[in-house]
Design goal:
Structural class of chain B: alpha+beta
Oligomer: heterodimer
Distance between the termini of chain A: 37 Å
Number of strands of chain B: 12
Number of domains of chain A: 2
Strand content of chain A: 5-15%
CATH architecture of the largest domain in chain B: Beta Barrel
Helix content of chain B: 10-25%
Shape of chain B: elongated
Helix content of chain A: 40-55%
Number of helices of chain A: 11
Protein backbone atom coordinates (compact mmCIF):
# COMPACT_ATOMS: atom_id res chain seq x y z
CA UNK A 1 0.00 0.00 0.00
CA UNK A 2 1.07 3.57 -0.40
CA UNK A 3 2.75 4.40 2.88
CA UNK A 4 6.24 4.28 1.38
CA UNK A 5 7.93 2.93 -1.71
CA UNK A 6 10.50 0.18 -1.99
CA UNK A 7 11.86 -1.12 -5.28
CA UNK A 8 10.13 -4.41 -4.53
CA UNK A 9 7.83 -5.04 -1.59
CA UNK A 10 9.11 -8.53 -0.93
CA UNK A 11 6.89 -11.05 0.78
CA UNK A 12 7.58 -14.74 1.39
CA UNK A 13 5.10 -15.70 -1.31
CA UNK A 14 6.54 -13.21 -3.81
CA UNK A 15 10.00 -14.69 -3.32
CA UNK A 16 8.64 -18.18 -3.80
CA UNK A 17 6.75 -17.09 -6.93
CA UNK A 18 9.83 -15.47 -8.43
CA UNK A 19 11.91 -18.58 -7.83
CA UNK A 20 9.35 -20.67 -9.72
CA UNK A 21 9.14 -18.07 -12.46
CA UNK A 22 12.90 -17.97 -12.96
CA UNK A 23 13.07 -21.77 -12.89
CA UNK A 24 10.44 -21.94 -15.64
CA UNK A 25 12.19 -19.32 -17.77
CA UNK A 26 15.58 -20.99 -17.30
CA UNK A 27 14.12 -24.39 -18.10
CA UNK A 28 12.47 -23.11 -21.28
CA UNK A 29 15.67 -21.50 -22.54
CA UNK A 30 17.82 -24.53 -21.68
CA UNK A 31 15.44 -27.01 -23.34
CA UNK A 32 14.98 -24.83 -26.44
CA UNK A 33 18.71 -24.32 -26.90
CA UNK A 34 19.59 -27.96 -26.21
CA UNK A 35 17.02 -29.34 -28.65
CA UNK A 36 18.02 -26.77 -31.30
CA UNK A 37 21.62 -27.92 -31.00
CA UNK A 38 20.84 -31.63 -31.05
CA UNK A 39 17.91 -31.89 -33.47
CA UNK A 40 19.27 -30.68 -36.87
CA UNK A 41 20.38 -33.32 -39.40
CA UNK A 42 24.07 -34.24 -39.65
CA UNK A 43 26.21 -31.38 -40.96
CA UNK A 44 23.56 -28.72 -40.27
CA UNK A 45 23.49 -26.36 -37.33
CA UNK A 46 21.81 -23.15 -36.23
CA UNK A 47 24.02 -20.19 -35.44
CA UNK A 48 23.94 -19.70 -31.63
CA UNK A 49 22.52 -16.16 -31.83
CA UNK A 50 19.69 -17.29 -34.06
CA UNK A 51 18.82 -20.00 -31.52
CA UNK A 52 18.68 -17.36 -28.79
CA UNK A 53 16.58 -15.04 -30.98
CA UNK A 54 14.03 -17.81 -31.42
CA UNK A 55 14.16 -18.96 -27.80
CA UNK A 56 13.59 -15.47 -26.39
CA UNK A 57 10.97 -14.55 -29.01
CA UNK A 58 8.82 -17.62 -28.45
CA UNK A 59 9.21 -17.36 -24.69
CA UNK A 60 8.17 -13.69 -24.57
CA UNK A 61 5.06 -14.43 -26.64
CA UNK A 62 4.08 -17.42 -24.49
CA UNK A 63 4.62 -15.46 -21.28
CA UNK A 64 2.49 -12.55 -22.48
CA UNK A 65 -0.25 -14.98 -23.48
CA UNK A 66 -0.14 -16.51 -19.99
CA UNK A 67 -0.14 -13.08 -18.34
CA UNK A 68 -3.29 -12.11 -20.24
CA UNK A 69 -4.99 -15.30 -19.06
CA UNK A 70 -4.27 -14.62 -15.37
CA UNK A 71 -6.84 -11.80 -14.96
CA UNK A 72 -9.88 -13.73 -16.23
CA UNK A 73 -8.72 -16.97 -14.58
CA UNK A 74 -8.54 -15.15 -11.25
CA UNK A 75 -12.15 -14.02 -11.79
CA UNK A 76 -13.17 -17.61 -12.47
CA UNK A 77 -11.35 -19.14 -9.50
CA UNK A 78 -9.81 -17.63 -6.40
CA UNK A 79 -6.98 -20.12 -6.75
CA UNK A 80 -5.42 -17.91 -9.44
CA UNK A 81 -5.35 -14.86 -7.16
CA UNK A 82 -1.73 -15.60 -6.17
CA UNK A 83 -0.74 -15.42 -9.84
CA UNK A 84 -2.58 -12.12 -10.10
CA UNK A 85 -0.76 -10.77 -7.06
CA UNK A 86 2.59 -11.48 -8.76
CA UNK A 87 1.60 -10.63 -12.33
CA UNK A 88 3.70 -7.47 -12.26
CA UNK A 89 6.99 -9.36 -11.87
CA UNK A 90 5.96 -11.65 -14.71
CA UNK A 91 5.17 -8.61 -16.88
CA UNK A 92 8.48 -6.86 -16.24
CA UNK A 93 10.34 -10.13 -16.85
CA UNK A 94 8.46 -10.63 -20.11
CA UNK A 95 9.49 -7.15 -21.22
CA UNK A 96 13.14 -7.92 -20.41
CA UNK A 97 13.00 -11.16 -22.41
CA UNK A 98 11.37 -9.28 -25.31
CA UNK A 99 14.10 -6.66 -25.01
CA UNK A 100 16.77 -9.37 -25.23
CA UNK A 101 15.02 -10.76 -28.32
CA UNK A 102 14.91 -7.31 -29.95
CA UNK A 103 18.53 -6.57 -29.04
CA UNK A 104 19.74 -9.81 -30.59
CA UNK A 105 17.65 -9.20 -33.72
CA UNK A 106 19.02 -5.66 -34.12
CA UNK A 107 22.57 -6.89 -33.63
CA UNK A 108 22.35 -9.94 -35.86
CA UNK A 109 19.99 -9.02 -38.67
CA UNK A 110 20.47 -5.25 -38.76
CA UNK A 111 23.99 -4.79 -37.43
CA UNK A 112 27.42 -5.25 -39.05
CA UNK A 113 26.58 -2.62 -41.67
CA UNK A 114 27.05 1.11 -42.21
CA UNK A 115 23.26 1.54 -42.02
CA UNK A 116 21.84 2.55 -38.62
CA UNK A 117 20.17 -0.51 -37.08
CA UNK A 118 16.86 1.30 -36.54
CA UNK A 119 16.86 2.68 -40.09
CA UNK A 120 17.56 -0.84 -41.31
CA UNK A 121 14.72 -2.25 -39.24
CA UNK A 122 12.15 0.13 -40.70
CA UNK A 123 13.56 0.53 -44.23
CA UNK A 124 15.35 -2.67 -45.29
CA UNK A 125 12.04 -4.27 -46.16
CA UNK A 126 10.00 -1.57 -47.94
CA UNK A 127 6.87 -3.67 -48.50
CA UNK A 128 4.52 -1.72 -46.22
CA UNK A 129 1.83 -1.98 -48.92
CA UNK A 130 1.69 -5.78 -48.75
CA UNK A 131 0.17 -7.98 -46.06
CA UNK A 132 2.30 -11.07 -46.74
CA UNK A 133 5.44 -9.01 -47.28
CA UNK A 134 4.82 -6.53 -44.45
CA UNK A 135 7.93 -5.65 -42.38
CA UNK A 136 6.82 -7.52 -39.28
CA UNK A 137 9.81 -6.29 -37.27
CA UNK A 138 8.20 -2.83 -36.99
CA UNK A 139 5.14 -4.36 -35.28
CA UNK A 140 7.30 -6.12 -32.71
CA UNK A 141 9.22 -2.92 -32.06
CA UNK A 142 6.05 -0.91 -31.35
CA UNK A 143 4.79 -3.69 -29.07
CA UNK A 144 8.08 -3.60 -27.18
CA UNK A 145 7.78 0.18 -26.73
CA UNK A 146 4.33 -0.27 -25.21
CA UNK A 147 5.66 -2.98 -22.91
CA UNK A 148 8.51 -0.69 -21.93
CA UNK A 149 6.09 2.04 -20.87
CA UNK A 150 4.13 -0.52 -18.88
CA UNK A 151 7.21 -2.02 -17.24
CA UNK A 152 8.60 1.43 -16.42
CA UNK A 153 5.33 2.54 -14.79
CA UNK A 154 4.49 -0.77 -13.14
CA UNK A 155 5.57 0.35 -9.68
CA UNK A 156 2.92 1.57 -7.24
CA UNK A 157 4.70 4.92 -7.17
CA UNK A 158 3.40 5.58 -10.69
CA UNK A 159 -0.02 4.20 -9.89
CA UNK A 160 -0.33 6.68 -7.01
CA UNK A 161 1.11 9.64 -8.91
CA UNK A 162 -0.57 9.12 -12.27
CA UNK A 163 -3.87 8.25 -10.62
CA UNK A 164 -5.57 4.88 -10.99
CA UNK A 165 -7.60 5.98 -14.04
CA UNK A 166 -4.63 7.11 -16.12
CA UNK A 167 -2.52 4.22 -14.86
CA UNK A 168 -5.18 1.68 -15.76
CA UNK A 169 -5.66 3.20 -19.21
CA UNK A 170 -1.91 3.10 -19.78
CA UNK A 171 -1.74 -0.53 -18.77
CA UNK A 172 -4.67 -1.51 -20.94
CA UNK A 173 -2.09 -0.95 -23.68
CA UNK A 174 -1.07 -4.56 -23.07
CA UNK A 175 -3.95 -5.63 -25.33
CA UNK A 176 -2.64 -3.46 -28.17
CA UNK A 177 0.85 -4.83 -27.55
CA UNK A 178 -0.49 -8.39 -27.68
CA UNK A 179 -2.39 -7.72 -30.92
CA UNK A 180 0.78 -6.25 -32.44
CA UNK A 181 2.77 -9.27 -31.29
CA UNK A 182 0.25 -11.67 -32.79
CA UNK A 183 0.60 -9.81 -36.10
CA UNK A 184 4.41 -9.75 -35.64
CA UNK A 185 4.48 -13.54 -35.30
CA UNK A 186 1.85 -14.22 -37.97
CA UNK A 187 3.57 -12.04 -40.57
CA UNK A 188 7.07 -13.09 -39.51
CA UNK A 189 7.96 -16.47 -38.04
CA UNK A 190 4.77 -18.17 -39.24
CA UNK A 191 5.63 -17.18 -42.83
CA UNK A 192 8.84 -19.15 -42.46
CA UNK A 193 8.20 -21.98 -40.03
CA UNK A 194 5.76 -24.27 -41.77
CA UNK A 195 5.25 -26.92 -39.10
CA UNK A 196 1.58 -26.74 -38.02
CA UNK A 197 2.62 -26.64 -34.34
CA UNK A 198 3.65 -23.00 -34.73
CA UNK A 199 0.37 -21.88 -36.24
CA UNK A 200 -1.56 -24.03 -33.75
CA UNK A 201 0.24 -22.46 -30.80
CA UNK A 202 -0.34 -18.92 -32.07
CA UNK A 203 -4.00 -19.58 -32.84
CA UNK A 204 -4.68 -21.37 -29.56
CA UNK A 205 -3.07 -18.51 -27.63
CA UNK A 206 -5.30 -15.95 -29.32
CA UNK A 207 -8.43 -18.09 -28.94
CA UNK A 208 -7.81 -18.88 -25.24
CA UNK A 209 -7.10 -15.25 -24.34
CA UNK A 210 -10.16 -14.04 -26.29
CA UNK A 211 -12.56 -16.66 -24.92
CA UNK A 212 -11.46 -16.17 -21.31
CA UNK A 213 -11.97 -12.42 -21.56
CA UNK A 214 -15.31 -12.84 -23.31
CA UNK A 215 -16.56 -15.34 -20.74
CA UNK A 216 -15.58 -13.26 -17.72
CA UNK A 217 -16.98 -10.11 -19.33
CA UNK A 218 -20.32 -11.86 -19.85
CA UNK A 219 -20.28 -13.28 -16.32
CA UNK A 220 -19.48 -9.84 -14.92
CA UNK A 221 -22.31 -8.21 -16.88
CA UNK A 222 -24.80 -10.51 -15.14
CA UNK A 223 -24.32 -8.73 -11.78
CA UNK A 224 -27.67 -7.65 -10.46
CA UNK A 225 -28.51 -3.99 -10.79
CA UNK A 226 -31.06 -4.18 -8.00
CA UNK A 227 -34.45 -2.55 -8.03
CA UNK A 228 -34.52 1.22 -7.67
CA UNK A 229 -37.26 2.13 -5.24
CA UNK A 230 -38.61 5.39 -3.89
CA UNK A 231 -36.14 8.17 -3.31
CA UNK A 232 -33.48 6.30 -5.24
CA UNK A 233 -32.79 3.54 -2.70
CA UNK A 234 -31.79 0.21 -4.21
CA UNK A 235 -32.95 -3.07 -2.70
CA UNK A 236 -29.90 -5.25 -2.05
CA UNK A 237 -31.53 -8.28 -0.45
CA UNK A 238 -32.16 -9.84 2.92
CA UNK A 239 -29.45 -9.43 5.54
CA UNK A 240 -29.07 -13.20 5.52
CA UNK A 241 -28.26 -13.08 1.80
CA UNK A 242 -24.95 -11.42 2.58
CA UNK A 243 -22.44 -13.91 3.99
CA UNK A 244 -20.60 -12.69 7.05
CA UNK A 245 -17.30 -11.05 6.12
CA UNK A 246 -18.24 -10.84 2.44
CA UNK A 247 -20.24 -8.68 0.08
CA UNK A 248 -22.94 -8.56 -2.55
CA UNK A 249 -22.05 -6.47 -5.61
CA UNK A 250 -24.58 -4.15 -7.26
CA UNK A 251 -24.38 -2.45 -10.63
CA UNK A 252 -26.39 0.79 -10.51
CA UNK A 253 -27.33 2.27 -13.88
CA UNK A 254 -24.56 4.44 -15.30
CA UNK A 255 -22.54 4.40 -12.09
CA UNK A 256 -19.70 2.62 -10.40
CA UNK A 257 -20.40 -0.76 -8.84
CA UNK A 258 -21.18 -0.90 -5.14
CA UNK A 259 -20.00 -3.58 -2.70
CA UNK A 260 -22.38 -4.08 0.24
CA UNK A 261 -20.49 -5.82 3.04
CA UNK A 262 -21.59 -7.55 6.19
CA UNK A 263 -19.26 -7.67 9.19
CA UNK A 264 -21.07 -9.46 11.99
CA UNK A 265 -24.17 -7.37 12.58
CA UNK A 266 -22.86 -4.34 10.67
CA UNK A 267 -23.86 -3.63 7.06
CA UNK A 268 -22.00 -0.99 5.05
CA UNK A 269 -21.52 -0.11 1.41
CA UNK A 270 -18.38 1.09 -0.34
CA UNK A 271 -17.19 1.46 -3.90
CA UNK A 272 -16.43 -1.88 -5.52
CA UNK A 273 -13.33 -0.42 -7.18
CA UNK A 274 -10.02 -0.62 -5.34
CA UNK A 275 -8.03 2.60 -5.44
CA UNK A 276 -4.88 0.63 -6.27
CA UNK A 277 -5.47 -1.18 -9.56
CA UNK A 278 -9.23 -1.24 -9.80
CA UNK A 279 -9.58 -4.66 -8.18
CA UNK A 280 -13.14 -5.88 -7.34
CA UNK A 281 -13.40 -5.17 -3.60
CA UNK A 282 -16.74 -6.95 -3.42
CA UNK A 283 -14.92 -10.22 -4.19
CA UNK A 284 -12.66 -9.62 -1.20
CA UNK A 285 -13.12 -10.38 2.47
CA UNK A 286 -13.17 -8.55 5.75
CA UNK A 287 -9.89 -9.24 7.48
CA UNK A 288 -9.14 -7.63 10.86
CA UNK A 289 -12.19 -5.39 10.43
CA UNK A 290 -11.08 -4.08 7.03
CA UNK A 291 -12.32 -4.84 3.54
CA UNK A 292 -9.38 -6.56 1.83
CA UNK A 293 -8.95 -6.43 -1.94
CA UNK A 294 -8.59 -9.89 -3.49
CA UNK A 295 -5.97 -8.68 -5.99
CA UNK A 296 -3.19 -7.15 -3.93
CA UNK A 297 -4.52 -7.05 -0.38
CA UNK A 298 -5.20 -3.28 -0.14
CA UNK A 299 -7.45 -2.62 2.83
CA UNK A 300 -10.25 -0.13 3.61
CA UNK A 301 -12.23 0.58 6.76
CA UNK A 302 -15.87 -0.25 6.39
CA UNK A 303 -17.19 2.87 8.08
CA UNK A 304 -15.28 5.55 6.12
CA UNK A 305 -13.65 3.85 3.07
CA UNK A 306 -10.19 4.90 4.26
CA UNK A 307 -7.13 2.66 4.38
CA UNK A 308 -5.97 2.14 7.96
CA UNK A 309 -3.17 4.48 9.07
CA UNK A 310 -0.49 5.08 8.00
CA UNK A 311 -1.92 4.36 4.53
CA UNK A 312 -3.82 7.08 2.74
CA UNK A 313 -6.09 5.53 0.08
CA UNK A 314 -9.75 6.57 0.13
CA UNK A 315 -12.82 5.25 -1.67
CA UNK A 316 -16.47 6.28 -1.72
CA UNK A 317 -18.93 5.16 0.90
CA UNK A 318 -22.72 4.86 0.46
CA UNK A 319 -25.63 5.28 2.87
CA UNK A 320 -27.38 2.03 3.78
CA UNK A 321 -30.54 1.16 5.71
CA UNK A 322 -32.29 -2.00 6.86
CA UNK A 323 -36.08 -2.24 6.77
CA UNK A 324 -37.84 -5.43 7.85
CA UNK A 325 -34.64 -7.43 7.41
CA UNK A 326 -34.07 -6.07 3.89
CA UNK A 327 -30.90 -4.11 3.07
CA UNK A 328 -31.14 -0.98 0.95
CA UNK A 329 -28.34 1.20 -0.40
CA UNK A 330 -28.46 4.73 -1.74
CA UNK A 331 -26.51 4.73 -5.03
CA UNK A 332 -25.48 8.38 -4.57
CA UNK A 333 -21.83 8.10 -3.40
CA UNK A 334 -20.33 10.10 -0.57
CA UNK A 335 -17.01 11.78 -1.27
CA UNK A 336 -14.14 9.29 -0.89
CA UNK A 337 -13.22 8.81 2.75
CA UNK A 338 -16.52 10.17 4.12
CA UNK A 339 -17.65 8.51 7.33
CA UNK A 340 -20.95 6.69 6.95
CA UNK A 341 -22.22 4.82 9.95
CA UNK A 342 -22.94 1.14 9.12
CA UNK A 343 -26.48 -0.09 9.53
CA UNK A 344 -26.89 -2.50 12.43
CA UNK A 345 -28.85 -5.72 11.99
CA UNK A 346 -31.60 -5.90 14.55
CA UNK A 347 -31.38 -2.22 15.48
CA UNK A 348 -34.69 -0.28 15.47
CA UNK A 349 -35.32 1.33 12.07
CA UNK B 1 -12.59 -22.11 -0.11
CA UNK B 2 -12.80 -21.62 3.64
CA UNK B 3 -12.50 -18.27 5.36
CA UNK B 4 -8.90 -19.05 6.29
CA UNK B 5 -7.99 -19.71 2.66
CA UNK B 6 -8.31 -16.10 1.52
CA UNK B 7 -5.02 -15.23 -0.12
CA UNK B 8 -3.33 -11.99 0.89
CA UNK B 9 -0.12 -11.44 -0.99
CA UNK B 10 1.58 -9.38 1.69
CA UNK B 11 0.80 -11.78 4.51
CA UNK B 12 3.62 -13.85 5.97
CA UNK B 13 1.61 -17.04 5.71
CA UNK B 14 0.13 -18.39 2.49
CA UNK B 15 -3.01 -20.49 3.06
CA UNK B 16 -2.36 -24.22 2.75
CA UNK B 17 -4.86 -24.69 -0.08
CA UNK B 18 -3.15 -21.89 -2.05
CA UNK B 19 0.25 -23.44 -1.45
CA UNK B 20 -0.99 -26.81 -2.68
CA UNK B 21 -2.59 -25.31 -5.78
CA UNK B 22 0.47 -23.22 -6.50
CA UNK B 23 2.74 -26.26 -6.17
CA UNK B 24 0.53 -28.34 -8.47
CA UNK B 25 0.09 -25.65 -11.08
CA UNK B 26 3.78 -24.74 -10.86
CA UNK B 27 4.80 -28.32 -11.57
CA UNK B 28 2.25 -28.51 -14.38
CA UNK B 29 3.53 -25.29 -15.92
CA UNK B 30 7.13 -26.49 -15.70
CA UNK B 31 6.19 -29.74 -17.44
CA UNK B 32 4.31 -27.75 -20.09
CA UNK B 33 7.33 -25.48 -20.47
CA UNK B 34 9.59 -28.44 -21.23
CA UNK B 35 7.10 -29.86 -23.74
CA UNK B 36 6.50 -26.57 -25.57
CA UNK B 37 10.17 -25.55 -25.64
CA UNK B 38 11.22 -29.00 -26.84
CA UNK B 39 8.46 -29.16 -29.46
CA UNK B 40 9.04 -25.69 -30.90
CA UNK B 41 12.80 -26.25 -31.07
CA UNK B 42 12.43 -29.71 -32.60
CA UNK B 43 9.96 -28.61 -35.28
CA UNK B 44 12.05 -25.70 -36.52
CA UNK B 45 12.81 -25.72 -40.21
CA UNK B 46 16.18 -27.27 -40.96
CA UNK B 47 18.92 -24.59 -40.64
CA UNK B 48 20.79 -25.65 -43.78
CA UNK B 49 24.40 -26.46 -44.41
CA UNK B 50 27.31 -24.06 -44.30
CA UNK B 51 30.16 -23.19 -42.00
CA UNK B 52 32.19 -20.14 -41.11
CA UNK B 53 35.01 -20.40 -38.62
CA UNK B 54 36.04 -16.77 -38.22
CA UNK B 55 39.05 -17.74 -36.15
CA UNK B 56 40.62 -19.80 -38.95
CA UNK B 57 42.28 -16.96 -40.87
CA UNK B 58 44.61 -18.02 -43.68
CA UNK B 59 45.92 -16.82 -47.04
CA UNK B 60 44.79 -17.70 -50.55
CA UNK B 61 46.68 -16.97 -53.74
CA UNK B 62 44.83 -16.35 -56.98
CA UNK B 63 43.61 -13.81 -59.51
CA UNK B 64 41.22 -11.15 -58.28
CA UNK B 65 38.42 -9.23 -59.98
CA UNK B 66 35.93 -6.66 -58.74
CA UNK B 67 33.48 -7.14 -61.62
CA UNK B 68 30.63 -7.78 -61.34
CA UNK B 69 31.39 -8.60 -57.70
CA UNK B 70 34.67 -9.13 -55.85
CA UNK B 71 35.95 -12.67 -56.49
CA UNK B 72 39.16 -14.59 -56.27
CA UNK B 73 39.95 -17.38 -58.70
CA UNK B 74 42.17 -19.68 -56.72
CA UNK B 75 43.04 -23.35 -56.43
CA UNK B 76 40.81 -25.87 -54.69
CA UNK B 77 42.26 -28.63 -52.49
CA UNK B 78 42.27 -31.00 -55.48
CA UNK B 79 44.28 -28.53 -57.55
CA UNK B 80 41.45 -27.43 -59.82
CA UNK B 81 40.59 -23.72 -60.25
CA UNK B 82 37.81 -22.52 -57.97
CA UNK B 83 36.07 -19.17 -57.66
CA UNK B 84 35.60 -17.79 -54.16
CA UNK B 85 33.40 -14.74 -53.68
CA UNK B 86 34.87 -12.06 -51.41
CA UNK B 87 33.24 -10.08 -48.63
CA UNK B 88 34.20 -7.92 -45.71
CA UNK B 89 33.69 -9.29 -42.19
CA UNK B 90 30.30 -7.59 -41.99
CA UNK B 91 27.54 -6.94 -44.50
CA UNK B 92 29.54 -5.41 -47.34
CA UNK B 93 31.33 -6.30 -50.49
CA UNK B 94 34.96 -5.44 -51.22
CA UNK B 95 34.73 -4.74 -54.98
CA UNK B 96 35.58 -1.08 -54.46
CA UNK B 97 38.72 -2.07 -52.57
CA UNK B 98 40.21 -4.16 -55.38
CA UNK B 99 41.43 -1.01 -57.15
CA UNK B 100 44.57 -1.30 -59.21
CA UNK B 101 44.97 -4.99 -58.44
CA UNK B 102 42.07 -5.83 -60.79
CA UNK B 103 42.99 -8.94 -62.79
CA UNK B 104 46.31 -9.33 -60.92
CA UNK B 105 47.70 -12.30 -59.09
CA UNK B 106 47.29 -11.56 -55.38
CA UNK B 107 47.40 -13.05 -51.91
CA UNK B 108 44.18 -12.55 -49.96
CA UNK B 109 43.90 -13.03 -46.19
CA UNK B 110 40.63 -14.05 -44.58
CA UNK B 111 38.39 -16.81 -43.27
CA UNK B 112 36.45 -19.29 -45.36
CA UNK B 113 32.65 -19.44 -45.53
CA UNK B 114 31.66 -22.63 -47.26
CA UNK B 115 28.50 -24.47 -48.21
CA UNK B 116 29.11 -27.54 -50.34
CA UNK B 117 30.91 -26.45 -53.50
CA UNK B 118 30.19 -22.76 -52.83
CA UNK B 119 32.90 -20.70 -51.18
CA UNK B 120 33.37 -17.14 -49.98
CA UNK B 121 36.33 -15.55 -48.25
CA UNK B 122 35.54 -12.98 -45.58
CA UNK B 123 38.64 -10.84 -45.83
CA UNK B 124 40.42 -9.53 -42.79
CA UNK B 125 39.87 -5.95 -41.59
CA UNK B 126 42.52 -3.34 -42.29
CA UNK B 127 44.69 -2.63 -45.28
CA UNK B 128 46.71 -5.83 -45.31
CA UNK B 129 43.95 -8.14 -46.49
CA UNK B 130 45.36 -8.12 -50.01
CA UNK B 131 48.87 -7.96 -51.49
CA UNK B 132 50.35 -8.66 -54.90
CA UNK B 133 51.48 -12.27 -55.17
CA UNK B 134 55.27 -12.47 -54.91
CA UNK B 135 55.54 -15.67 -56.93
CA UNK B 136 54.27 -16.55 -60.40
CA UNK B 137 51.35 -19.07 -60.50
CA UNK B 138 52.06 -22.52 -61.85
CA UNK B 139 48.41 -22.86 -62.93
CA UNK B 140 46.76 -20.18 -65.05
CA UNK B 141 44.03 -18.73 -62.80
CA UNK B 142 42.91 -16.01 -65.19
CA UNK B 143 39.10 -15.75 -65.22
CA UNK B 144 37.77 -17.56 -68.31
CA UNK B 145 35.30 -16.04 -70.76
CA UNK B 146 31.63 -16.18 -69.83
CA UNK B 147 29.82 -18.92 -71.74
CA UNK B 148 26.14 -18.58 -72.64
CA UNK B 149 23.91 -21.45 -71.47
CA UNK B 150 20.58 -20.14 -72.73
CA UNK B 151 17.40 -18.34 -71.74
CA UNK B 152 15.72 -19.58 -68.58
CA UNK B 153 12.65 -18.85 -66.49
CA UNK B 154 13.09 -20.06 -62.95
CA UNK B 155 11.14 -19.94 -59.70
CA UNK B 156 12.89 -19.51 -56.40
CA UNK B 157 14.20 -16.98 -53.89
CA UNK B 158 16.77 -14.19 -54.07
CA UNK B 159 19.28 -14.60 -51.25
CA UNK B 160 22.43 -12.88 -50.16
CA UNK B 161 25.29 -15.23 -50.90
CA UNK B 162 27.25 -14.63 -47.70
CA UNK B 163 24.49 -15.63 -45.30
CA UNK B 164 23.44 -18.58 -47.47
CA UNK B 165 27.02 -19.86 -47.74
CA UNK B 166 27.09 -20.20 -43.95
CA UNK B 167 27.34 -16.83 -42.19
CA UNK B 168 23.77 -17.27 -40.93
CA UNK B 169 21.83 -20.45 -40.44
CA UNK B 170 19.03 -20.34 -41.44
CA UNK B 171 19.41 -17.64 -44.07
CA UNK B 172 16.22 -17.79 -46.09
CA UNK B 173 12.66 -16.57 -46.05
CA UNK B 174 10.74 -13.71 -44.53
CA UNK B 175 12.57 -13.62 -41.19
CA UNK B 176 15.87 -13.08 -42.99
CA UNK B 177 14.56 -10.63 -45.58
CA UNK B 178 15.83 -7.43 -43.96
CA UNK B 179 19.27 -8.90 -43.37
CA UNK B 180 19.54 -10.21 -46.93
CA UNK B 181 18.49 -6.81 -48.30
CA UNK B 182 21.07 -5.10 -46.09
CA UNK B 183 23.81 -7.46 -47.30
CA UNK B 184 22.97 -6.97 -50.98
CA UNK B 185 22.69 -3.21 -50.51
CA UNK B 186 26.19 -3.35 -49.00
CA UNK B 187 27.59 -4.93 -52.16
CA UNK B 188 27.46 -8.64 -51.42
CA UNK B 189 26.55 -10.75 -54.44
CA UNK B 190 22.84 -11.60 -54.68
CA UNK B 191 22.20 -15.24 -55.47
CA UNK B 192 19.15 -16.87 -56.97
CA UNK B 193 18.23 -20.17 -55.33
CA UNK B 194 16.18 -21.90 -58.00
CA UNK B 195 14.04 -24.87 -57.06
CA UNK B 196 12.07 -27.06 -59.43
CA UNK B 197 8.89 -28.89 -58.50
CA UNK B 198 10.82 -32.16 -58.77
CA UNK B 199 13.14 -31.00 -55.96
CA UNK B 200 16.19 -30.07 -58.05
CA UNK B 201 17.95 -26.90 -57.01
CA UNK B 202 20.71 -24.61 -58.23
CA UNK B 203 22.37 -21.49 -56.92
CA UNK B 204 23.15 -18.78 -59.46
CA UNK B 205 24.90 -15.46 -58.93
CA UNK B 206 22.64 -12.68 -60.21
CA UNK B 207 23.82 -9.97 -62.60
CA UNK B 208 22.13 -7.26 -64.61
CA UNK B 209 23.61 -6.89 -68.07
CA UNK B 210 26.82 -8.47 -66.78
CA UNK B 211 27.12 -5.88 -63.99
CA UNK B 212 26.25 -5.92 -60.30
CA UNK B 213 22.58 -5.49 -59.36
CA UNK B 214 21.59 -2.22 -57.67
CA UNK B 215 19.11 -1.34 -54.95
CA UNK B 216 16.12 -1.86 -57.27
CA UNK B 217 16.51 -5.57 -56.54
CA UNK B 218 15.99 -5.17 -52.78
CA UNK B 219 12.15 -5.27 -52.58
CA UNK B 220 12.21 -8.73 -54.22
CA UNK B 221 14.79 -10.23 -51.89
CA UNK B 222 13.60 -13.27 -49.88
CA UNK B 223 10.17 -13.32 -51.55
CA UNK B 224 9.01 -16.23 -53.70
CA UNK B 225 9.71 -14.93 -57.22
CA UNK B 226 10.06 -15.98 -60.82
CA UNK B 227 12.99 -14.68 -62.84
CA UNK B 228 13.49 -14.73 -66.60
CA UNK B 229 16.99 -14.20 -67.92
CA UNK B 230 20.06 -15.66 -69.50
CA UNK B 231 21.89 -18.48 -67.75
CA UNK B 232 25.64 -18.24 -68.13
CA UNK B 233 28.61 -20.25 -66.98
CA UNK B 234 31.73 -18.49 -65.74
CA UNK B 235 34.30 -21.10 -64.84
CA UNK B 236 32.79 -23.00 -61.90
CA UNK B 237 30.16 -20.30 -61.29
CA UNK B 238 26.65 -20.27 -62.66
CA UNK B 239 25.27 -16.80 -63.43
CA UNK B 240 21.71 -15.61 -63.97
CA UNK B 241 21.68 -12.41 -65.95
CA UNK B 242 18.54 -10.31 -66.20
CA UNK B 243 17.07 -6.93 -65.24
CA UNK B 244 14.82 -6.33 -62.24
CA UNK B 245 11.93 -5.87 -64.69
CA UNK B 246 12.19 -9.60 -65.49
CA UNK B 247 11.39 -10.53 -61.87
CA UNK B 248 7.80 -11.23 -60.88
CA UNK B 249 6.55 -12.03 -57.41
CA UNK B 250 4.79 -15.38 -57.11
Amino acid sequence: MSHGYNAVGWTPFKKRFDRWMLAGIGLYLIVFVAVSVVAPPDGESFTPIQILIRATGTLAFLLLTFILCIGPLARLTDRFKPFLFNRRHLGVTTFLIGLAHAGLVLLWYHGFSDVNVFVSMFASNPRYDSLAGFPFEALGFIALLIMFVMAATSHDFWNANLGPGVWKMLHMGVYLAYALLVAHVALGAIQFEKHPAYLALLASGVVIVSLLHLYTALASSRIDGGKILNAGWIRVGATSDIPDGRALILQPTDAERIAVFRDGDRIAAISNVCRHQGGPLGEGRIIDGCVTCPWHGFQYQLEDGRSPAPFTEKISTYPTKIENGIVFVNPEPNAPGTEEAPSIIGAPA
Amino acid sequence: MSENDFFIGWADETPRAERRFFLGSGLGLLAGTVAVAGGLAFWQKSPGLGTWNQGAVREWTGVITGQPYAMLRTLDIDGTPKTALLSCLGKCGVAARVGSLEGQSVVVKGSLIQRGKHAMIAVADGMDWIAPSPAAQQVDLTFPDVEPVGPVTLAGEILDSKCWFGAMRPSEGKVHKACAALCIRGGLPPAFYAKTTSGESALMIMTDGGLAHGEALLPFVADPVQVSGQARRWGDLLLLDGPVSAITRL
